[in-house]
Design a protein that fits this description.
The protein starts with 12 loop residues before the first helix and ends in a 9-residue tail after the last strand. Helix content is 6%, strand content 35%. The protein has one domain. It is mainly β. A hairpin with a 7-residue loop joins strand 7 and strand 8. The protein is globular, with a radius of gyration of 16 Å. The structure holds zinc ion. It comes from Streptomyces agglomeratus. This is Nucleic acid-binding protein. It holds the Pfam family zf-ChsH2.
């Protein structure tokens, strides 16, 4: 087991099943109407338990990031440097993730991103983000 492998339980199973299908899910509260991420069993704003799954459209803007050059926790050690980022999903929630396929020098606050999914070995597909516009670099 590694720190990167999320805990998957009965509650978060739909989230990871959707990710395996290339879909990003949010939780939306039916009491106050606010969406949130990462999934919780109750609304973090009003504590209602009347919260349902909803598919996110997969668009986000970059809020902040930090390039991680060293991380001793597997599997991160083999992956450095990587771009640890916080993005604002189009639906509103802020999400901690990674930006992939974009040079550090090209990162801009507010740049448009789109979700993609990283699959590694036997682990679940993990949502990460790439630049929304293909900039001719041929990166995938
Ligand atoms: Zn609520």
């Amino acid at each position: 087991m590694s720190a990167d492998v999320p805990d998957i339980d009965a509650f978060t199973r739909p989230y990871w099943d959707a990710a395996a299908d290339g879909r990003l899910l949010l939780r939306r509260c039916r009491a106050c109407g606010r969406p949130h991420h990462y999934p919780r069993e109750f609304c973090p704003y009003c504590w209602s338990e009347d919260v349902v799954w909803e598919r996110a459209n997969g668009r986000a803007t970059l809020y902040t990031w930090s390039v991680v050059h060293r991380n001793d926790l597997p599997p991160f050690g083999a992956r450095v440097p990587y771009v640890a980022a916080v993005v604002d999903l189009a639906e509103g929630p802020r999400m901690m993730t990674e930006v992939v396929g974009c040079a550090e020098a090209d990162l801009r606050i507010g740049m448009e991103l789109t979700v993609t999914f990283r699959r590694e070995g036997e682990g679940p597909a993990v949502p990460v983000f790439r630049t929304a516009r293909l900039s001719g670099g041929g990166q995938s």
